[in-house]
Amino acid sequence: MSSPLRIAIVGGGPGGLTVGLLLHRHGIKSTIFELRQKPTDEELAKPSGMLDLHEESGLAAIRECELYDQFLQLTGECSEAQKVSDKDGNIIHEDKGELSERPEISRHSLTKLLSSHVPAENIKYGCKLFSATSVTVLNGTETELDFGPNGKKRFDLVIGADGAWSQVRNMLSDIKPQYAGTQNISLTIRHITAKYPHLADFVGRGSFSALGSRHGVMSQRGPQDSARIYIFLTTPDEHFSTSVGLKGRPASAAKEPLLNNDELLGCFGTKIKELVTVACDEETKDKPGAALDIRPLYTLPIGVSWNHKPNATLIGDAAHLMCPWAGEGVNLAMWDSLLLAHAIIKADNISKDGNASFQSVLGPLMKEFEDEMFVRTKEKAEETYSNGQMLFGEDGAAAFRDFFQAAYAQMKGEES
C-alpha cells in the first residue's frame, strides 16, 4: 500500500486556498503554510481591495469549489459601473457596467469564503519559509522546506503560491521581479456617503479613474460603505518613498509632497486634490500611528518560464507577477489552481489504479500544465503591459474613454 501523498502549498492567498480546497474536495490532503497569523473575523470585515472575478478563470474555480451561490451573496458592495475623469475632475465617460459580467468581491471576503471550507488543521499560520531545496531520494526527488524555528519538512510536491518574492521560485529559477516604474499608495475613506456625500457621488458606486500626466487616482467602493483610493505615480525612482521623505510617516504627511509638486499630482484639479486630501486625512484618523501604505510595483518578465521539476511548481504571482492593469492577478492564480488541481487529481487516480508512483504519473501532467500556463499567462502579461501604456500615458483619461467607447461600439455591432 502506498504512503499518503505529502503535498505542501506555500501561501494562503486565493490561489493557495483554491488549490487546497479543490484537492480536499477530492480526498487529497495538503498542508497550506501561510506567513501571516490567522486573521480574525473583525480583521476580515475591514475594507480591502476589490477583485472582479472572470468567467473562464476565477468564477470557474469558484463553481468547481461548489461555492458560487455563497460567493454571489458576498458581492454587491462595489458595482461594475465605471467612471473616467480627466486630471481636472471632469467626467468624460460613465457607464453602469453594461459590458461587464465580472462580479466584484472584497479580497477579505474571498479569503474568508475559501478558508472557511478548508479543514482548519490543513492551514498552518505564522510559518515563514526561508528556503526550498530539491533532495534526491531512493524513489525520486523530494522538496525540503526550511521554516527556520519551525523546523524543516519534506514533501513529494510543493506548490509555490508565495507571491512576488517566492522562495519556491528560487528553487526553480534565478529570475527575480523587476521594478515596474510605478509607485502605489493605498488609502481608505470609510462611510463615505455619510461623511462626504459629494465625494461619494463623484466617485460613484463602482470604479473611478482620474488619469493624466502619467499618473492616476482611482477609487473602488467596498465594505463599510468605503471608498478604497489608489494613487499610482509613474517614476523611475524605485525608492521614491525614501527620496520624498514619506517612508514611515503617516498618510496625512503625503498631502504636501504629492499635491504641491506639478511633476506628481500638483497638476491635477481641485476635485481630485480634495479626494486625495480627504483620503489621506481619513486614513490617518482610522490608523493613528500607522505608516503610509506606499510601495513600488514589481513585475516578472513577460513570457517567464522555468525548467520543469516533478517535485515543485508555481502558481499566481509566484509564477507570473504582473501589474494590476488588466485585473488578471487573482483570476490567473485561481485558474492556475483549477488546472493544477485537475492534474494532481488525475495523477492520484492513475497511481492508485496502477503500479506507477504518483510523481512518475504527475510529472508529464504537471509539465503539460506548466507549458499551457506559460502560453496563457504570456498573453495576459502582454495585455496588462498594453493597458498600462494606455492608462498612464500623457492623456490616459482620453485613451481609457476611447477604450470603453470602442468596446460599446463592438457590443452594439454584435447585437445588430
Question: What keyword list fits this structure?
Answer:
FAD/NAD(P)-binding domain; FAD; FAD binding; single chain; monooxygenase activity; seven-stranded mixed beta sheet; 416 residues; FAD-bd; flavoprotein; 15 helices
Layout of strands and helices, then pairs:
Layout: E1 7-10, H1 14-25, E2 31-34, H2 41-44, E3 50-52, H3 58-64, H4 68-73, E4 82-85, E5 91-95, E6 104-106, H5 107-115, E7 123-125, E8 131-137, E9 140-146, E10 152-155, E11 157-160, H6 167-172, E12 178-189, H7 192-195, H8 197-203, E13 207-212, E14 215-222, E15 226-234, H9 240-243, H10 255-259, H11 270-286, E16 293-299, E17 312-314, H12 317-320, H13 329-353, H14 358-391, H15 396-415
Parallel strand pairs: 1-2, 1-11, 2-7, 4-13, 11-17
Antiparallel strand pairs: 3-6, 4-5, 8-9, 9-10, 12-15, 12-16, 13-14, 14-15
Helix pairs in contact: 1-5, 1-13, 3-13, 13-14
Protein name: FAD-binding domain-containing protein
GO molecular function: FAD binding; monooxygenase activity
Keywords: FAD, Flavoprotein, Monooxygenase, Oxidoreductase
Question: Brief overview, please?
Answer:
By secondary structure, the protein is α/β, with parallel strands linked by helices.
